[in-house]
Design goal:
255 residues; alpha/beta; 5-stranded parallel sheet; 52% helix; globular
């Protein structure tokens, strides 16, 4: 998490807002053991980053779909557990500004008052409808949607349309919606934990004066190449799937 605090683009909306009531982290597929995939883990870490930076006061984890009914947990619950389990081992609280250290205490407390779980949604459309309903009930007026790069266009527009529809029903002004930019480099760095660990191990060996084993280096390179190829395949699949989803949402008037 220490690298996260310096990553990502500045947060702002069309109205120039840099602080929001809540970040809405959108769900994605889980691993077979119920833990977040790399794509989902990146979204969670970005949402937690916004909380620690003071850019948001709360985080909604939105996702009820558990992949294929194989896991007895929701995406929302898996995201919260991941945030609580991962953060203590990856953040150096000394690098936080003094005014943000209280937010670390808030995050690591047992009450988890900063987090809201939306566990019923099964699509981006229901992510928007159900999350915005929760936000409206809490009188929060601004939200930033946290998702992957390939999903940002559809998700932001879907939330904006849903917010306008909600406002027409409730008579309240629409909740202000913004989207956080997750750069390609940011996603790539977050989805290569094995390579980062291997590089760190090599540096430690060098510092101790014991040169890394050549055979191990070759194995590490092969593993890194295989991971890169798999990441590219997944990326292409997500892109094609997203284009089809945009067409469907446009046809139904959801974007």
């Amino acid at each position: 998490f220490s690298s996260l605090l310096a990553a990502g683009a500045p947060l702002s909306s069309q109205k120039g807002r840099s602080q929001f009531d809540v970040a809405i982290v959108l769900g994605y597929a889980l691993e077979d053991d119920g833990s977040p995939t790399c794509v989902l883990g990146t979204r969670v870490r970005r949402g937690v980053e916004l909380l620690l930076q003071g850019s948001v006061h709360h985080v909604v984890f939105s996702g009820g779909h558990d992949g294929a009914g194989l896991r007895n947990t929701s995406e929302a619950k898996a995201m919260l557990q991941y945030a609580l389990r991962t953060t203590p081992h990856h953040i150096n609280t000394s690098i936080l500004r003094p005014d943000l250290r209280n937010r670390w205490q808030l995050l690591s407390s047992s009450s988890n008052d900063w987090a809201v779980l939306e566990e019923a949604s099964t699509s981006t459309r229901t992510n928007a409808e159900l999350s915005l309903q929760m936000i409206h009930e809490r009188n929060w007026r601004s939200a930033v949607v946290v998702t992957s790069r390939f999903h940002q266009i559809r998700s932001k527009r879907t939330f904006q349309v849903a917010a306008n529809q909600q406002a027409s029903i409730t008579g309240s002004p629409p909740i202000e919606i913004a989207a956080i930019d997750i750069s390609e480099e940011y996603e790539r760095n977050q989805c290569n934990p094995t390579q980062q660990t291997l590089r760190s191990s090599t540096l430690v060996d060098d510092e101790k004066g014991s040169p890394p084993d050549d055979a191990n280096e070759k194995d590490d390179d092969a593993m890194g190449t295989a991971q890169q190829v798999m990441a590219e395949i997944i990326g292409q699949y997500n892109l094609v799937r997203e284009v089809a989803a945009i067409a469907l949402y446009w046809a139904r008037g959801w974007i």
